[in-house]
Write a structure and sequence with these properties.
Elements lengths: L4 H4 L18 E4 H11 L4 E4 L6 H7 L6 E4 L3 H15 L3 E5 L3 H4 L2 H9 L4 E7 L15 H5 L5 E5 L5 H13 L5 E7 H5 L1 E4 L18 H13 L3 E5 L2 H4 L3 H11 L3 E3 L14 E3 L7 H9 L2 E5 L5 H4 L10 E6 L13 E4 L2 H17 L7 H13 L14 H11 L5 E4 L3 H9 L8 E2 L10 H11 L5 E6 H7 L2 H7 L5 E6 L4 H10 L28 H7 L3 E5 L5 H10 L5 E6 L36
Helix pairs in contact: 2-3, 2-8, 4-6, 4-19, 10-15, 12-15, 17-18, 17-24
Enzyme class: transferase
Organism: Streptomyces termitum
Pathway: Amino-acid biosynthesis; L-isoleucine biosynthesis; L-isoleucine from 2-oxobutanoate: step 1/4; Amino-acid biosynthesis; L-valine biosynthesis; L-valine from pyruvate: step 1/4
């Protein structure tokens, strides 16, 4: 993903030259005190975590910190997702903390999630005493080894004197280049030992030199292809948001006149309402966006990675297109699709340089004519718009619920989503005009993400309304963090899209498994096991939410929809949970079945658009 160092801003300052500035103050402290002082110096203001034996020494000096707020979560997975939501909403590094063994392993899922979505995260874990490492000591786990494939980098610290430098390096690595999670595992005896603390430390990162400035020749080649193309598409990924390059993107799009498609991780990078925006691509993308990529003769990929959910069957993806691929991570370029013009660099610099190069092409009389292309695109948009049918039985439509939440939400609202049908409906039916207003788990597809991520976003942006759009399946994985919200004055709002089932899995069973709904019903058990439960919904989300200190509402009648949403929006002193009882058979469309070509996109069940087979159609 493409990224600027300035976007997150947390990286160690260079050591002052001798005589240039006064020598840093040296303090005699414990390793634990050094850890907390280091967090203060790198600008960490919020830590999500749970104490335990091996990390406990760090919790004592944390009590004395006036700069670092600790939020005591109910599960370490919640701490990790909250740190991710905080990072995605603020652009700063998210921080989570856990003890050794199960505390650390409970962070594995959010660390993997942050790695897939390039989120700047520092996870700090306690470890057994250095002499006990490798002995299978109580609550020992090799968390460095476990997380090696899912971190940008990780550290095992066994000496107190290394703590400050390691924290500085961890924040620098997490927030620069392609951002990502960094784990710092600290032995208990290192936290307890005496050391000296001075800041800034001398960083030692040989070989870590992210390339930010793109090659001028490649930029010129890309500009020539853009002005020579007849059917270009700007394929925008989440790296553009991470780079803070959305303003530059708008300039480039309007300068070229090319259509823009924004991935699930890039919603808000380009205004949904802009006439050049053709929607989200991919498995459940807009028909126009999916088809535009298939018919394009040039794809300019900016901070995107050609993942399988966008490309469908890879060898049939965009068969007529030349590829300009710009990314700050050189490993992404050519990984899935060969690039005709590879550009390694920071998105902000790449796009700014592309603007100048395209302007130079225009000055020389080279300007793309996309009028025929836009005629096709507009026809597809008119013929296959996003939409949904209201249930014939008068029950709530999940799409309508989500759409009205988006329409009635105050300006500046941040939306998080779990994973599944409700995630896709939230992507389709809420308009995202600005970056960092849509937070979700894209790469890992982590159920249970929404509530703790909303908590983290609200902790980082307390003046912004935050709605979590969650499914009844996702909600039951991490809803305990509502207790954390209630006790810490974090008034998020949660919409449970309650269809009584694992909706996306049920949709696949309906389409591909002859409607054999094996183990996807959530609200009741088999009738022959518990006949008394027949017709009841377990759990009662209203009672459950009230027990956790929230205001809880339920909506089943479409006539009450706007009133209930308005009531939730008006409550800002406590968390609010709304249980929306929706129709169970609603499905997500459009859809490209897994493993098939994007040419086989279905606008609705049984409706396959016919765009012809020729290159020039």
């Amino acid at each position: 993903m493409l990224m600027t160092e300035q976007a997150t801003g947390h990286h160690p300052q260079p050591r002052p030259r001798s005589g240039a500035t006064p020598a840093p103050t040296v303090e005699h402290v414990t390793g634990a005190q050094s850890l907390i002082r280091s967090l203060e110096e790198v600008g960490a203001d919020t830590v999500f975590g749970i104490p335990g034996g091996c990390i406990l020494p760090a919790y004592d000096p944390m009590m004395d910190s006036e700069k670092v707020r600790h939020i005591l979560v109910r599960h370490e997975q919640g701490a990790g997702h909250a740190a991710t939501g905080y990072a995605q909403a603020t652009g700063k590094v998210g921080v989570c903390m856990a003890t050794s063994g199960p505390g650390a392993t409970n962070l594995v899922t959010p660390i993997a999630d942050a790695h897939m979505d390039s989120v700047p995260l520092v996870a700090i874990t306690g470890q057994v005493a250095s002499k006990a490492i490798g002995t299978d000591a109580f609550q020992e786990a090799d968390i460095v080894g476990i997380t090696m494939p899912i971190t940008k980098h990780n550290f095992l610290v066994t000496r107190a004197e290394d703590i400050a430098r390691t924290i500085a390096e961890a924040f620098h690595i997490a927030s620069t280049g392609r951002p990502g999670p960094v784990l710092v595992d600290i032995a208990k005896d290192a936290l307890q030992a005496k050391t000296t603390f001075s800041w800034p430390p001398q960083a030692d990162l040989p070989g870590y030199r992210p390339v930010t400035k793109p090659h001028a020749k490649q930029i010129r080649e890309a500009a020539k292809l853009i002005t020579a193309a007849r059917r270009p598409v700007l394929y925008v990924g989440g790296g553009v948001i991470k780079a803070g390059a959305t303003a530059e993107l708008k300039v480039l799009a309007e300068l070229t006149g090319a259509p823009v498609t924004t991935t699930l991780m890039a919603l808000g990078a380009f205004p949904d309402s802009h006439p050049q925006h053709v929607g989200m691509p991919g498995m459940h993308g807009a028909v126009t966006a999916v088809t535009a990529l298939q018919k394009a003769d040039l794809i300019v990929a900016l901070g995107a990675r050609f993942d399988d959910r966008v490309t469908g069957k890879l060898d049939s993806f965009a068969p007529y297109a030349k590829i300009v691929h710009a990314d700050i991570d050189p490993a992404e370029i050519g990984k899935n699709r060969a690039a005709d013009v590879p550009i390694v660099g920071d998105a902000r610099e790449v796009i700014a340089d592309l603007v100048q190069a395209v302007q130079a092409e225009h000055t020389e009389g080279h300007r793309g004519d996309y009028s025929a292309w836009w005629s096709d695109l507009n026809r597809w948009r008119e013929t296959y718009p996003l939409g949904y049918d209201l249930p014939e039985d008068g029950s709530l439509s999940p799409q309508q619920v989500i759409q009205r939440i988006g329409q009635l939400a105050p300006e500046g609202t941040i939306f998080t989503a779990g994973v599944g049908q409700h995630q896709m409906w939230a992507a389709h039916f809420i308009d995202y005009e600005k970056p960092a207003t849509w937070l979700n788990s894209g790469g890992a597809g982590t159920m249970g993400y929404a509530v703790p991520a909303a908590m983290g976003a609200k902790a980082g942006m307390p003046d912004r309304p935050v709605w979590a759009i969650d499914g009844d399946g996702c909600f039951q994985m991490t809803n305990q963090e509502l207790v954390t919200c209630a006790l810490n004055n974090i008034p998020i709002k949660v919409a449970i899209i309650n269809n009584g089932a694992l909706g996306m899995v049920r949709q696949w069973q309906a389409l591909f498994y002859n409607q054999r709904y094996s183990n996807t019903v959530l609200h009741s058990g088999p009738d022959d096991v518990n006949p008394q439960a027949r017709g009841t919904r377990v759990p009662d989300f209203v009672k459950l939410s009230e027990a956790m200190g929230c205001v809880a509402l339920r909506c089943e009648d479409p006539a009450d929809l706007d009133k209930v949403i308005a009531e939730a929006n008006a409550i800002n002193d406590r968390p609010v949970v709304v249980d929306f009882i929706v129709h169970e058979d609603a499905q997500v469309w459009p859809m490209v079945a897994a493993g098939t070509s994007n040419d086989e996109v279905m606008a609705a069940r049984g409706v396959r658009p016919d765009f012809g087979d020729g290159e020039d159609d």
